[in-house]
């Protein structure tokens, strides 16, 4: 089984709409520097299944990455999706669901796994409520901290402190031969979350900003910067990848000292198309 990183950028991707910073301008000139919105796939080529975690606004292009590996999976002949797990209700993590509706692919009975609060949000808000009624989506509620068997792996959700204007926020631990934790969004680290990261083999974690200085005039940066996270998690035996990069993040400059410093400390940088065997 593999984990495939479908998108390693923050919700709006890189380049970000309306931005002419050096990183965004460079990405417009060089398509190889573009990054999709946040999502990963859990897939197996032999068993022909593919589960997404989150549905980003770039899902249409991200599915092409999957088709290269899985020409067809169990439940859908037109799109290679067996099911979708959701972390929370922010734009970059659920807006891709809309592409599964009548106006686009008109999928049938795609299982969407989520918390009870997230399920309530989807049931009570358009367009998701309409898609549920039309059976484009089929909701399956997951209890927090309960381990579920899916195909030949296990998955467990855990609570995450994040801006929960609409529902709640969870991360996931995926287990097969190894344990992998996916935590793209949080507001701050807790002792319990740090212990959870240190308990797994591999972790993909929130790297939205490198430092709090990236957003001039703002003191309320709502994500723990990479600089602070590295101090909290150094040393650790867990193989750690940062992901969910904002377009301002200096990590995205391959020649920058920030990227070199991170790698010298033993941390890694996720990228679209990255494959991790677990």
Structure notes:
- The protein has helices at 22-29, 59-67, 91-94, 116-123, 128-133, 191-198, 226-232, 257-264, and strands spanning 2-7, 39-44, 49-53, 83-85, 110-114, 137-141, 147-150, 153-159, 170-175, 179-183, 202-206, 239-243, 268-269, 275-277.
- It has 278 residues and is of the alpha/beta class.
- It has one domain (2-277): Ribonuclease Z/Hydroxyacylglutathione hydrolase-like (Metallo-beta-lactamase, Chain A, 4-Layer Sandwich), CATH 3.60.15.10.
Features:
14 strands; Metallo-beta-lactamase, Chain A; alpha/beta; about 280 residues; globular
Mean pLDDT: 94
Identify the strand order in the major beta sheet: 6-5-4-3-2-1-14
- The residue ranges in which pLDDT falls below 50 over 5 or more consecutive positions are none
How many beta strands in the DSSP annotation? 14
The biggest beta sheet reads: 7 strands, mixed
Domains counted in the coordinates: how many?
Answer: 1
> Number of DSSP helices?
8
Q: What is the CATH class?
A: Alpha Beta
The helix-and-strand class reads alpha/beta
Named at the architecture level, the CATH assignment is 4-Layer Sandwich
Q: Please provide the ordered H/E string of secondary-structure elements.
A: EHEEHEHEHHEEEEEHEHEHEE
Radius of gyration: 18 Å
CATH superfamily: Ribonuclease Z/Hydroxyacylglutathione hydrolase-like
Note the overall shape.
globular
> What quaternary form is this?
single chain
Q: Tell me the fraction of residues in β-strands, as a range.
A: 15-25%
In percent, how helical is the residue content? 10-25%
CATH fold description: Metallo-beta-lactamase, Chain A
Distance between the termini: 6 Å
